[in-house]
What we know:
The complex is a heterodimer. By secondary structure, chain A is α+β, with helices and mostly antiparallel strands. Chain A has 2 domains: 40 residues; 36 residues, no CATH class. In chain A, 41% of the residues lie in helices and 15% in strands. Chain A contains 1 helix and 2 strands. A two-stranded antiparallel sheet of chain A has the order 1-2. Chain B is an alpha+beta fold. Chain B folds into 2 domains: 30 residues; 146 residues, 3-Layer(aba) Sandwich (Protein Transport Mog1p, Chain A). Chain B has 4 helices and 8 strands; from the N terminus they run ααββββαββββα. In chain B, strands 1, 2, 3, 4, 5, 6, 7 and 8 form an 8-stranded antiparallel beta sheet that branches. The radius of gyration of chain B is 19 Å and the shape is globular. The two termini of chain B are 36 Å apart. The chains are: A alpha+beta, B alpha+beta. At the A-B interface, β2 of A face loops of B.
Amino acid sequence: xxxxxxxxxxxAVVVGSLLGAPSAGAAQVDTDITVDxxxxxxxxxxxxxxxxxxxxxxxxxxxxxxxxxxxxWRGWACYPC
Amino acid sequence: xxxxxxxxLGGLAAAAALTTVGLGTAVxxxxxxxxxxxxxxxxxxxxxxxxxxxxxxxxxxxxxxxFNHRDGSRGITTTIVVLPSAQDATGSMNAxxxxxxxxxxxxxxQPVPVGTGGTWVTGTSPDGSQSVGVLLFTEANAAVEVQFxxxxxxxxxxxxxxxxxxxxxxAIHRQLGM
Lengths: 81, 178
């Protein structure tokens, strides 16, 4: 009985070391990618805004290009320039 | 058999006529004062200040009401007259249109999908200082004229006119049962 326990314990040690090996290898690959700064993507740039509305800005009410906030036929609203 | 049917139909028609007359006398006078559509309702705004409605303008059964923009730059005047028949309503609308020359200069006219005979006449005031648009249509035996006065460089948008007219048609159906 003690002999069987010893055999099982030894087998577990061997299997455990085999299972751990691929994991270690994978971690190694990841480390290689992150440390390679030459292929890192460029930092995102701020979106370009084209100023086209009546007064050259998007306005407090955010009417957007080509529209103007004023009190017209429909009351206060965005109207075409 | 044919004769009997005719008699029966005649009897039914007479009964229907009597019923109609009876109902007509029983129904209370419609509240014409609430008939014009308030532009604030269709613009989802509080831009317009309604003036008190004038009942039976020029001695005709109906109502006239002005809605003035709060900044005084534009106004909407709605006139509705209720006549004995649809033919009379058409005649009234045609008479209005024939007199538009004194109100709208440089006229252009186009049909619009509002009521019956919906017509949209645009131009300027005779002195050219304002834009003027007039919507004309009939609905059953009601004739409707809506005048839009505004800045010369800012005429009323056509889609607003159509929307207003269609809402006015619905109000006539709802309140006069036409």
